[in-house]
Design brief:
single chain, 61 residues, mainly alpha, 2 helices, globular
Length: 61
């Protein structure tokens, strides 16, 4: 289960990413309610997806 972690190391790679209006709105609402930056939330969502993808690969081996 995804849980917001408020302790995230500094990030130094700047990238541009585009969101749908719905996804952007959901992420913005969650970041505000959890009192974390939008960027921190996006990074955590990406890390969670990578971890879950890796776990899925381990189960198929």
């Amino acid at each position: 289960m995804f849980k917001v972690n408020k302790n995230l190391a500094k990030c130094n790679v700047a990238r541009t990413i585009r969101f749908t209006e719905n996804i952007y709105g959901d992420l913005l609402r969650i970041s505000e309610s959890e009192q974390v930056s939008f960027n921190q939330l996006v990074l955590q969502c990406c890390q969670y997806a990578i971890d879950e993808y890796a776990d899925k690969g381990d189960k198929n081996d």
